Amino acid sequence: MIVIRPVSLNDLDRLFQLAQKVAPGMTTFPPDRAVLLNKIHASNSAFSMNVSKEDENAYLMVLENTETKEIMGTAGVYSNIGKESPFYTFQILSRYKHSFETNNKVPSKTLHVVNEFTGDTEIGTLILDPDYRGHGYGKLIAKCRYMLIAQFSELFGSRLIAELRGWSDEKAISPFWESVGKHFFGGMSYDHADYLCATTNNQFIADLMPEYPIYIDLLPQDAKAVIGKPHNQGKPALQMLLNEGFRYENFVDIFDAGPTVHAYIENVDTIKNSKIVTVAEFTESEEASTHCLVCNTAIDNFKVTYIPVHILLNGTVAISAKAAEVLSVNLQDNIRIYPLSH
Question: Which residues are catalytic?
Answer without folding.
Answer: 231
